[in-house]
Amino acid sequence: MDSSSPLLVLSSQFIWPKEDLVDAYDQKLTEPHVDLHGFLKGDQKATIEASHLVRTACMKHGFFQVINHGVDQTLLATALDKMGPLFNLPFHLKTTASAKMWGFSTAHSNRFSSKLPWKETFSFGFDHCKTSNNEPLVVDFFSSMLGHEFQEIGALYEKYCEAMRDLGLALTELLGISLGVERSHFRKFFEDGSSIMRLNSYPICEQGSLALGTGPHCDPTGLTILHQDQVGGLEVFADNKWHTVPPSQNALVINVGDIFMALCNGEYKSCVHRALVNKHKERRSLAFFLCPRKDKVVRPPEKLVVGGGSRKYPDFAWSELLEFTQKYYRADAVTLQNFTKWVVSARPCDV
């Protein structure tokens, strides 16, 4: 990282309020890992066992980890390794490789001026069906943003996104089973979507007790599949305390996001989490955010509006929530609640 990067000196923009810096509880979050092998092979008993574990975790805090998930371990390792050539580019080149919400971002400083996260990101879209005219394919995106010499890396991340899409859609089936709705219900909702891929790099921070790599928030998307290195730093808020989540070899982290919480009428929780910084080691992770098509209406199945009960959230399109978090509101632990108020107030009243 060259001398023009802001991630060298901890200026006041990177210092977080004390309430956000509360230390994690001294106990690790020891949720059982969900073994997907039997589920992916169609074993009914294993599927029921996995769905019970998922349901318990999602009702408590919206977080679980999966093993035997079917994603090639070499692909996972290579995807982490190839982040090096990207984030080691000269800073002045990174600043030119950005367009709206895509490309490089340093501490999201283009959007915020305080409580900046101590991280760099590289983000791009992934069309599930590869038929959209609105977003380039991943390979084309890398070539257009970084040059033809990055085509090979672009092809790698396109393959990675395809694997994450397949796993994410399979997980929507398991979530459907756990909620007692038709197995394919949520899969159909997401299968023609356009997801978001984000590579995260958290540089060494000597004053780590004052900064955060990512502040407390819920992801506004459907599901998040996180692949992290072995440095550690992820924390989840559960039982009114922060709990550390140590990296687990060969496991992938799954977070429920705001879209899915609305889809199940609040039965499952959107996971509140944050990322710490490290005084001694750089940390890297890859986050795949499973998203529906932007015009899809987010509405729970009738079965989850129990016994004629009330809807917790109004109908809305993913494009509306995305606009809210990109233009008007910084994602935090209560994004969906505040979005609900905003979207209702923004719509004309029926006469």
How does this structure look, described?
- By secondary structure, this protein is an alpha+beta fold.
- It has a single domain (15-345), classed as Jelly Rolls (Sandwich), CATH 2.60.120.330.
- The protein has eleven helices and 15 strands.
- The strands form three sheets. The protein has a nine-stranded mixed β-sheet. A four-stranded antiparallel β-sheet has the order 7-12-9-10, with no helix packed on it.
- Helix 3 (73-81) crosses helix 7 (151-179), helix 6 (138-146) packs across helix 7 and helix 10 (318-328) crosses helix 11.
- The longest helix has 29 residues, at 151-179.
- It is globular and about 55 Å long.
- The relative contact order is 0.15.
- The model has no long low-confidence stretch (mean pLDDT 91).
- It comes from Cucurbita maxima.
- It catalyses: gibberellin A12 + 2 2-oxoglutarate + 3 O2 + H(+) = gibberellin A9 + 2 succinate + 3 CO2 + 2 H2O.
- Its cofactor is L-ascorbate.
